[in-house]
Specification:
Length: about 230
């Protein structure tokens, strides 16, 4: 059945923050050098490791997962020394919300084009109460017919209940839906429990998700249109 409704995750699907750039500046302030590419790959690798080994943890408050995450990030990059004060700097940036969430530059245009082509759009995201204000600030909230946020409904992905809430609010059957996210273990596993198709974003080919079938992977959401239009033919 052709897809008529496209659901999106938020973090690192539609939104991102400049954590890599900030981390690089902190390193330089400590007299440490790593390339931008090394840092990008490190964050990506640890993200995917946490998604696989600690399902749901990345959606919790930063204080709950960041010490473990930061430790593994530094280990990946071969950084040692006074990691406690380094971690304090890093946590301070998160707690002070100095790492602002942004929309990928191509997101507004893509959402507009999907709507123009008749696709209904929605969000299903594990996020705190800041989700709607962020989307509103970025000017993309109104693209979504239905927005379901875990902190608002009291259930998180991959629990099928959050997907059932979304389907009920949208009055759409799962067979007509496609879910797009960056976390296979929250997004694909959760969507599949209600019969949704899914695509998983991975910016670096299959790096970090070598265990997954390449056919479900896309580099970013701009690759959706060819996939969707192919189904319609």
């Amino acid at each position: 059945m052709p897809v008529g409704f496209v659901w999106f995750d938020l973090g690192y699907t539609l939104l991102y923050n400049e954590r890599e750039e900030f981390f690089l500046k902190l390193l330089e302030s400590r007299g440490l050098k790593r390339s931008e590419n090394q840092i990008e790959l490190a964050f990506h690798s640890i993200d995917k490791r946490f998604m696989r080994e600690y399902p749901g943890l990345l959606g919790s408050p930063a204080q709950e997962f960041m010490p473990r995450y930061f430790s593994q990030l530094c280990e990946y990059l071969g950084i040692d020394g006074d990691l406690l004060s380094f971690l304090d700097q890093w946590l301070e940036a998160w707690e002070a919300k100095r790492l602002e969430w942004l929309a990928y530059p191509f997101v507004p245009g893509l959402l507009k084009e999907l709507g123009r082509r008749g696709y209904r759009l929605g969000v299903i995201s594990n996020w705190d109460p800041s989700a709607r204000p962020i989307l509103k600030r970025l000017g993309i909230l109104d693209f979504f017919e239905v927005t379901v946020i875990s902190s608002e409904v009291g259930v998180t992905k991959p629990d099928r209940k959050i997907f059932e809430v979304a389907l009920e609010k949208a009055s759409v059957s799962s067979e007509k839906c496609l879910y797009v996210g960056d976390n296979y273990y929250d997004d694909a596993v959760g969507a599949s429990t209600v019969g949704m198709e899914y695509k998983i974003i991975n910016r670096f080919g299959n790096f970090g998700v070598e265990e997954l079938d390449k056919s479900i992977l896309i580099r970013d959401v701009t690759e959706l249109l060819p996939c969707l239009e192919k189904e319609r033919r």
